[in-house]
Amino acid sequence: MELDENSELKIGSERGENSSVGLSSEVGADENGTNSGGLGSRGVRIREKLEKELRPVELEVEDISYQHAGHAGVRGSDGETHFNVKIVSEEFEGKSLVKRHRLIYGLLQEELESGLHALSIVAKTPSEV
To answer: Does the pLDDT value for residue 13 go beyond 60?
Structure first.
């Protein structure tokens, strides 16, 4: 299966519902290439896990859950359900877009199982930026 940057994957939850996981979105950052201001505990965990495992040269994590208020994946949650992630890492060298995304999903599996409903990812190598 080949996906382009605008493709979408479905991830099922333990309750049997499917949550949409987008594969492309640009997000904003501060002058240091980071976006930690305003992140709640889930956003901080996402950032820390990706920093530790992928040693990115650029990482932006943006909580956009407020844009999905009332959405089925948000009701009954702590509110941190939808995120945009832009990551640039040498760890992606030689990996297809799908493999890059699977790597990130694997690193964030606990979050996906505990209420992370949607994750929009832009994953590039330094030479692609």
So the answer is: no
Radius of gyration of the chain (CA): 14
Look at phi and psi of residue 13 and say left if phi exceeds 0, alpha if psi is from -120 to 50, else beta.
beta
Angstrom distance (rounded) from CA 112 to CA 12:
9
Second-level CATH architecture of 8-128 = 2-Layer Sandwich (3.30)
Q: Pick the residue with more confidence: 118 or 22?
A: 118
How many angstroms separate the CA atoms of 125 and 105, rounded?
17
pLDDT for 68: 58
Domain ranges of the chain: 8-128
